[in-house]
Amino acid sequence: MNTVTLTEVGKSFGRTDALADVSLALAPGITGLLGPNGAGKTTMLRIMATALAADRGTVRVLGADPATPSGRTEVRRHLGYVPQETGFPRGFTAFSFIDYMAILKEWSDPTRRHAEVRRVVDLVGLTDVAPKRIAALSGGQRRRVVLAQALLGEPDLLVLDEPTTGLDPAQRGRLRDVLGRAGESATVLISTHQTADVAALCERVVVLDGGRILFDGTVVDLVRQADGRVWLAQERHPAARHAWRTGTGRVRNVGDPPADVDLIEPDLEDAYLLLVGEAGSDPELEAVS
């Protein structure tokens, strides 16, 4: 059963289509959402999270219609949302902010609510700093505060916009474990620029550009599209769409290889760069803000 269904959903800002009649269905599991800046990713996530209304099309989230007040309320009871940017009320500690969010999510019993707040604080590794004011926390710690509130109550739908921003490798590894466990029963959508996170966590990936879906399928199938198009050489090749010198001193070239080159296995980043680069050559697929 689908948790989220978008049917020809569009959203415009002035004359610019942030989403151009997108159709997408999400079921339990973890889906990665990739795309360049201005592709429409945040707009899509905000519509799913009931923070923004679509201009056209049909949106169904957890069986409810977020276009109605009762539908929005029902969705928010079962939603965990990490927006791209978050403001914090002045003077709150990490614990008190998450507790406040739990109150907004209708956790009325203080004993049960505080136990749940402690659970999610521990999940994201903030137990030692929970009593500290948010203003005194690092950027990565503040990001984990936002992640913790999204995990309250083990929601059926997690919508996460750049959740690993500001996290170090160890923290990202811990978050992958948390989200991997959540995805066993919930629907998790992760918008990120970190292709490594998508490769590590997601079976399915959606690539969005210019408000349109360029690819929707398995990570394996997207990577397969780059087979035979990545090679190592001593120099950057003119046929390469992207090239960079690696730690070995050799140059990784991504594009249309000449004959007799040292082809290597592509990864998700290679496939993504090829897909978005080729779509970008189409004047009808211009990125939007």
Proportion of beta-strand residues: 25-35%
User: What's the number of extended β-strand segments?
Assistant: 13
Return the CATH topology of the largest domain.
Rossmann fold
Which runs of at least 5 residues are low in confidence (pLDDT < 50)?
Answer: 280-289
User: Main sheet?
Assistant: 6 strands, mixed
Mean pLDDT, as a whole number?
Answer: 93
> Which architecture of the largest domain would the CATH scheme give at its second level?
3-Layer(aba) Sandwich
Number of helices: 9
Rg value: 21 Å
- CATH level 1 class label of the largest domain: Alpha Beta
Question: How are the strands of the largest sheet arranged?
Answer: 5-6-7-3-8-9
- The count of domains is 3
Helix content: 25-40%
End-to-end C-alpha gap: 33 Å
